Amino acid sequence: MKIAVVGIGAVGGVIASKIDREYAPVMISKNKEIVKSIRENGLRVKKEKATHCNVNCCPRIYSSFKEADLKFDIILLCTKATNVIDAAKEALNYLSEIGFIVSFQNGIVENHLLEFVPEEKLVGGIIGFGATMHQPGFVEMTSHGEIVIGELNGCIKERIKVLKSILDSVIETRITQNIWGAKYSKLLINACITTMGAVSGLTLGEMLSKKEFREVFRKILYEGVEVAKKKGIKLEKISGVSIHKLAASEREINGKFCLSKFHKDLIIKFIGRKYKNLKSSSLQSLERGRKTEVDFINGIIVRYGKETGFETPVNERIVEIVHEIENGKRKISPENLRELIF
């Protein structure tokens, strides 16, 4: 079985390293520094109690599918959502007869991919573990969590079982028959943690230690959950976390005190303490002068809200703030979150 991993950043690097011994994947990266580093030093992975180790042979990384000149049975797309369209268009030409693509992006990109990728050639995926790239070609898995995969039509085919057995080499992998609901549920988590961290510059611990910011967290979730109800999206637990146990209800949004609101606040505070050093991936993108994935995350909530006639003012404003930062019209600051308290 021939496997390609596209996008050798933090997530792609971890996956490629974990499945290397048994499946020897080909790596594809448009980043010249990453290609150069891996060709010279191998793909380096930081392990718990060690500095790093080389786990890949150098020749198996290429700057394009054309350079690799191979057909693949499985292509794992691990690029940023902002780059996934171009990556998928190129990948489609290098699938074997039975081959398929797996989309692992934050947010929801599958609706865009289905405009040119046949449904039978696409599988949805969610990454629940944390990862970081210390240097080009030097990655680390920073937190544990499951991988979730599923056919877009909800069927369980033999190929999804094969994919699970491969990805189990990375971390525990779960098959869902509700991949759209699972993707949207993960999107809601990212809409809070990733985007709030991006506009504020704070770690998750710093952010969720403040009551006013936990309120913003709940409001973002509230809008997302209400939109899901109107769209008929069935939410799923993500790495054991139920979105409904975090999101504010309409009664809580209206300012009325109740035990459920107090309980949700404690859970969110606990999440902040447990992952206190977590730094937003979108914040890292902004610091490098790159565009974020906000249009595929909070932007999806806004779009679904317009489609269903439900207003999403907090998500609309945070999307605007991110774009202002991207365009150099605003600085990253905790004050940006205070604008969302209304």
From TrEMBL:
Family classification: Belongs to the ketopantoate reductase family.
Residues in Ketopantoate reductase N-terminal domain copies: 3-153
Keyword Mitochondrion in record: no
InterPro entries from the UniProt entry: 6-PGluconate_DH-like_C_sf (IPR008927), 6PGD_dom2 (IPR013328), ApbA (IPR003710), Ketopantoate_reductase (IPR050838), KPA_reductase (IPR013752), KPR_N (IPR013332), NAD(P)-bd_dom_sf (IPR036291)
Function comment: Catalyzes the NADPH-dependent reduction of ketopantoate into pantoic acid.
Gene name per UniProt: panE
Associated pathway: Cofactor biosynthesis; (R)-pantothenate biosynthesis; (R)-pantoate from 3-methyl-2-oxobutanoate: step 2/2
EC numbers for this chain: 1.1.1.169
Annotated GO MF terms: 2-dehydropantoate 2-reductase activity; NADP binding
Naturally occurring in which organism (per UniProt): Thermotomaculum hydrothermale
GO CC term, one of those recorded: cytoplasm
Alphabetized UniProt keyword annotations: NADP, Oxidoreductase, Pantothenate biosynthesis
Catalytically driven reaction(s): (R)-pantoate + NADP(+) = 2-dehydropantoate + NADPH + H(+)
Name of this chain's protein: 2-dehydropantoate 2-reductase
Residues in Ketopantoate reductase C-terminal domain copies: 178-326
GO aspect biological process, one term: pantothenate biosynthetic process
